[in-house]
Amino acid sequence: MAKRARIRDIAEHLGISTATVSRAISGKGYVREELGEKIRAAAIELNYGLPEDFAGKRVLLVVSHEAMIDFERSQFTMYVLEGLRRRASERGLVIDNHAIRSADELDGLAELARASDLLGILFLTVDDSILKPARSLECPVVLVNTDDPEMRLSSVTPCNRSAAAMAARHLTDLGHERIAFLTKPGRRTIQRRLEGVRDALGSRQDTMIVIEAEDWTVQAAQAAVAEALADDRQFTGIVAAGDILAAGALIALHAAGLRVPEDVSVIGIDGLPQGAYLAPALTTVSIPMQAIGAYSLDMLCNTAQLQGTSRNFPVSRIELACSLTKRNSTGLRASRVVEPV
After folding, report:
1. 232 is a domain residue
2. pLDDT higher for 87 or 213?
3. Mean pLDDT in residue range 186-196
4. What does the DSSP 8-state code read for residue 255?
5. Which structural domain range is residue 277 located in?
């Protein structure tokens, strides 16, 4: 958590007096409008807690179809929502849900965005087709678990690229040279995980293979890995783009008579609690899922404050660091490559 600034820090940052900063933030006393905007913008930038009175305000949570069916698969969304709802309770905010399948279903949001009791809108795990209509809404908007490539909407995500690089480096540190990236391609966030694996491998990218599953399910991952083994695609380590895919990989490897981690090491990305109960327990890069939800609501509140006081509030992107959770599914590279039985 970043250290909170003091009034003196804001004053020094802008080269003005602490009294001027105090008047602008409290609203007690005259400060030129232009200067007041700069002071309040600096307060947000430097992580100074501006006074707020959002209790009872509504936040509209727009959830994609992909995020909703995630409940039936990896449960990543469930933990993000848990963090979001806990923070909403702390701030006295009310969360209203709105599920969508496509951008065509956003027509009614423009009117909702103008409601006087609406603080803003959070978009959870949406595709790029949603971004254009979201940018035109007349209220604060924050993207959750996705980002805007044009940087016109603020967002909170895990740092997907560094998370995947961490996973791949864990395998290379164990001596693995032939690494498979098991993925379900599609969203830009998952593409960044592929880029992270490539970052870690550097000049050795020609030793990597990509295994594509048809869906984010155990069964799809199991089928994809089984097919790769049948095709004699050789690897000693698997980086799975999600823990749910890693679970399918474990099943496929066991079915082929391969030992984990003696023959093949497997690492996931998510940090879902159920990974600890797989056989063997899954090494994973843990994403701070609840923090994603909490930070998203905090960013929406900050945006609402700043948008209400400044015509030029900054758009920002927060990427949260992830951590390596070592368990028994990874180990030193064996002396041979994979030889399915």
Report:
1. yes
2. 213
3. 93
4. H
5. 160-287
Is residue 127 predicted with pLDDT exceeding 90?
no
Place of tokens 């056989």: 279
Asked if the structure places residue 331 within a domain, the reply is: no
The single residue listed with the structure tokens 């209790």 is: 55
One domain, residues 293 and 282: no
Look at residues 25, 1, 322 and name the one whose alpha carbon lies nearest to residue 165: 322
Separation CA 182–CA 213 (nearest Å): 7
Mean pLDDT value across residues 298-305? 86
Q: How far apart are CA 219 and CA 213, in angstroms?
A: 9
- Residues 258, 341: Cα–Cα separation, whole Å: 8
Q: How many domains does the chain have?
A: 3
Query: Which of 241, 270, 264 has its CA nearest to residue 251?
Result: 264
Buried b (16+ CB within 10 A) or exposed e, 292-312: bbbbbbbbbbbbbbbeebbee
- 176 and 252 share one domain: yes
Instruction: Please state, in angstroms and rounded to a whole number, the distance separating the CA atoms of residues 185 and 167.
Output: 18
